[in-house]
């Protein structure tokens, strides 16, 4: 498992931003890391842009592992869904926060409909 310092930030971001805001932030992160021409995150785009995300200390091997870890269809690149799922998988706390937010949103909806 790749260690990401980044992952510690996610639960804090999630609490601050709420569910939709968090997804937006993840998408923003995705756009920062992706190859603008191909529209996916490749090892090259990751290497080029990782400093923007504070990931400059990661070795090429660690970045490759991150892609391998998240790549579900085996094309060697991360699309947006794969990236978001990877972020959630790397940060189990984030999943708790997301479920929490979901629960709250459901409660709000229930109250709203009464
Ligand atoms: Ca893929």
UniProtKB/TrEMBL annotation:
InterPro entries: EF-hand-dom_pair, EF_Hand_1_Ca_BS, EF_hand_dom, KIC/PBP1/KRP1. Keywords: Calcium. The keyword Calcium applies. Gene3D superfamilies: EF-hand. It holds the Pfam family EF-hand_8. GO terms for molecular function: calcium ion binding. The keyword Ribosomal protein does not apply. Residues 58-93 form the EF-hand domain. This is EF-hand domain-containing protein. It comes from Anisodus tanguticus.
């Amino acid at each position: 498992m790749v260690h990401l310092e980044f992952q510690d930030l996610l639960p804090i971001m999630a609490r601050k931003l709420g569910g939709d805001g968090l997804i937006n932030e993840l998408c923003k992160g995705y756009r920062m890391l992706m190859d603008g021409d191909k529209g996916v995150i490749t090892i090259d785009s990751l290497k080029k842009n990782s400093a923007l995300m504070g990931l400059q200390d990661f070795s090429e091997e660690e970045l490759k592992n991150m892609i391998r870890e998240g790549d579900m269809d085996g094309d060697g690149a991360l699309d947006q869904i794969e990236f978001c799922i990877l972020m959630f998988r790397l940060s189990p706390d984030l999943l708790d926060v997301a479920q929490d937010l979901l629960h709250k949103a459901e409660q709000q909806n229930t109250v709203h409909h009464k």
